Each structure stands twice: as C-alpha cells, then as structure tokens.
Amino acid sequence: MSNSPTQIELIQPDDWHLHIRDGAVMKDVLADTARQFARAIIMPNLKPPVTTVGLAKAYKARIQANLNALGISAFTPLMILYLTDTTSVDEVRKAKDAGIAGFKLYPAGATTNSDAGVSDLKHCHAVLEEMQSVGMPLLVHGEVTSPEIDIFDREAVFIDSVLEPLRQHFPELKVVFEHLTTKQAAHYVRDAIIGGKNTIAATITPQHLLMNRNAIFSGGIRPHNYCLPVLKREEHRVALLEAATSGNPRFFLGTDSAPHAKGAKETACGCAGCYSAFNALGLYAEAFESQGKFDKLEGFASFFGPDFYSLPRNTQKITLVKQAQNIPAELPLGDATIVPLRAGETIAWSLVEN
Ligand code: DOR
Ligand code: ZN
C-alpha cells in the first residue's frame, strides 16, 4: 500500500476498550461505535459494577435490546467482568464457560467508578491463578493510586510496583495493559520477555496518539481533553506513535471512548474521559498518516486484537477516504448532550458509509 493514499480499504476493525454506559445514553454512543467497528470490549465500570456472569448477561441483554432498537445486527459486544477483592475462583470458571472475554483490574480509586476496585492484588491470588490456568485475560488499568505519587508518574510506578511482580508471579497469565500513555509503558510491553506464548499486549487510544498534555491547558482549561491516565509529555506521545505504527502485534486499537454528558465535564470537578467514538477511525487514520505508516494500520486496528484474544479476525471490509469531516460541537446523549473529541474542528479522514 502507498503511504500517502487518499482511500484505504481495511478488514473491519474492532474496538478493544470501550465504555458505553447504561440506560438512556447507551443507544446514542453504541450507534457511533457500531458504525465503524464489528466488535468491542465493553468495560464493566457501571454503578454498580459488572462483577458477575449474571450481571454481565443482563448487561449484554440490554446492549442487545439497544442494538435491536437501532436496527443493527452486525455488532458483537464482548463482555468483561470487574475484578474485586472478593471475586471467587468459581466466578472465573463460570466466566470461562459463559464466553466472558476477560476481567478488568481497576486499582481502587484510580478512575471513574473504581471504588469497588482491587485494594491489593494479594486478595486475588487464587483468582489470578485460575485465570492463568483457564486462559482468561486480565485487562489492567495501569496506575497506582497513592496520593504521594505524582499523577504524571502513576503509570510508570505501576509497572515497577504492580505489573512486573504480577507477571513474575503469573508468567502465563494473559495481560492487556490498557490505554498506554508513557514511553516506559510502551517500552515495557515491547521488551517484555515471555515464554513460548505471547502473554502481554496493550491498547492505545487516539487521544494519546494525537495530543500531549498541553492540550489540557491550551488557552485555558480544556475539560474535554481530560482523561485517565492523563495525557503526558510530547516524548511519550512520540513513543506511543512509534509503538502503534511499528507493526508489533502486542499493540492494538482500543479507543477508551468514555462518554460523560457536557455538564459533567464542564463543571468544578469534571469527570475523566474523552468521547472519541464519533469518528475514532478517522482519528487513528490521522495518527498513522502523520508517520507515513498506513501500511501498519490494518494490523493494529483489525488483526492483532482478535489474535491476542484468540478470536477470529473479521472478514468484511470498510473503506476510509481522505475527505474532511466536520465534527459537531455537540451530539445528543440521552436527555443531555456530549462534546466529542475535536468538537467543532475537522478530521481529514472519514468512513465511507454503506
Ligand atoms: O478517562 C477515563 N474515563 N479513564 C478511565 O479509566 C475510565 C473512563 C470512564 O469510565 O469514564
Ligand atoms: Zn476505560
């Protein structure tokens, strides 16, 4: 493939990290994702969190009802359970039998709706042992939460104090290091030594490929560019771009699109999360184009995720064209509105709608 094309055809991508919430807002955000992606990993940080197979089945049924109402038949949600200090070994077995795609580790207090998260991984040893033995992936929000650790260092400290000891203890456990934000994380995943099987992978969001931390403060406070883990320095963005466009199968697409109503972002204590689902593929195309690496986009967006999760690759194709798309200032979100990433601006690449 030429590296300066005006049209690209790809096997349809999946989103390996997505928040769609629940209730009235779900339909609006689901429609944006299902326009572009065939499948998505559905994050379980609802209130209350999705901690059991029973809750995941009920959540999946609500997602299916919304897909039916939207007339969408070609989208598959992949369900994830929220790991807690009290998750049982039996729940892991049930999850495996029920086709749950993984468990999510939120260190308690790390981000939106993470109060029920794990206070110390020592409470989870038997469960992790079982996950390792049945091949159940652990998806990690990689930040420590101690107040004395600077917010910009939380990911790097997590690698040394939590992730590396975890992987030493459970070398066969499949781990997805979610939404990388630092050079340290990109290099850790790239260089991790593994046994015969690939046991580590990582997702990368569009905002961390396209923006550095200046974007939170340019000309004033920009709440819609605030997410967790927070945007980092330019050198980290450069390292993430290099990782994503390297063709290394350990790195794949996960938007972490995290909808919050406009009023919950533009307030004295605004929520963390960027809404990138509206034109996520256009955003990723822009990032890959900036590196002249379009030939690496399909692997990142469409192949490496299913390969890691041991799921079949999609076979249907989608087309992106170099045709500027205006991003609306606001979009409907239930009874409220949401401000998408790059609101009021244009994105060079658009999906050709069938
Ligand atoms: O910015 C974020 N928003 N990071 C997360 O880890 C959670 C997410 C959310 O659910 O809003
Ligand atoms: Zn997330």
Structure description:
With 354 residues, the chain is of the alpha/beta class. It has helices spanning 26-36, 53-70, 89-97, 125-134, 154-169, 183-191, 206-210, 234-244, 262-265, 280-290, 297-308, and strands spanning 7-11, 15-18, 39-42, 76-82, 102-105, 138-140, 175-177, 200-204, 251-253, 317-326, 331-333, 336-338, 346-351. It has one domain (7-351): Alpha-Beta Barrel (TIM Barrel), CATH 3.20.20.140. The model has no long low-confidence stretch (mean pLDDT 96). (4S)-2,6-dioxohexahydropyrimidine-4-carboxylic acid (DOR) binds next to loops.
Question: Strand share of the residues?
Answer: 15-25%
Radius of gyration: 19 Å
What is the level-2 CATH architecture name?
A: Alpha-Beta Barrel
* Class from helix and strand fractions: alpha/beta
- How many structurally independent domains? 1
Number of continuous helical runs: 11
| Beginning-to-end CA distance, first to last residue | 23 Å
- The averaged pLDDT comes out at 96
| Major sheet details | 8 strands, parallel
Which fold name fills CATH's third level, the topology?
A: TIM Barrel
Give the class-level CATH name: Alpha Beta
Bound molecules: (4S)-2,6-dioxohexahydropyrimidine-4-carboxylic acid, zinc ion
CATH homologous superfamily placement: Metal-dependent hydrolases
What percent of residues adopt helix (DSSP H or I)?
A: 25-40%
What spatial form do the alpha-carbon principal axes imply?
A: globular
